[in-house]
Specification:
Elements lengths: L2 H9 L25 H34 L2 H36 L13 H15 L1
Length: about 140
């Protein structure tokens, strides 16, 4: 800290803690990514969407009452926008179900890969190729 900063702190009665007392905020550590990561993300997104739908439905009920009482075109417009948002949220809920099924199908698909390996010299390989060519004719 420079002399100028010290004089300014003294003039403003600012007490500066020593550098050793300054505490750094903790670093947010993300959980390890494991094989069930897709399921965890799916459950989290699903819970969030359910909460959004429930709160949106409550808000919609209240907005409908406000719109009826005020008879304002703007309040009916807001009700319409909320209805559209709720229907989009319900579509998102169905889409994540579809996406998780696709992810599970990708992981469950088994693939058999067979590699043919020739063990021998190049001369033996050439003889083998010539023999198969003669057999094909």
């Amino acid at each position: 800290m420079s002399d100028y900063e010290k004089k300014l702190d003294k003039a403003l009665n600012i007490l500066t803690p020593p550098i050793s007392q300054i505490i750094e905020p903790p670093v947010k550590v993300l959980p390890d990514r494991g094989p069930d990561e897709a399921n965890t993300d799916y459950q989290y997104a699903r819970e969030n969407l359910y909460n959004l739908v429930e709160r949106g439905t409550e808000a919609l009920n209240e907005l409908v009452q406000v719109a009826r009482e005020s008879e304002s075109p703007r309040s009916y417009e807001v009700v319409g926008q909320l209805i559209k948002t709720l229907s989009d949220t319900n579509k998102d809920l169905l889409n994540i179900q579809k996406q998780i099924k696709e992810i599970k199908q990708e992981h469950s698909t088994t693939q058999n890969i067979t590699n043919a390996v020739f063990v021998g010299s190049t001369a033996e390989l050439q003889k083998l190729i010539k023999n198969t060519e003669k057999d094909d004719k």
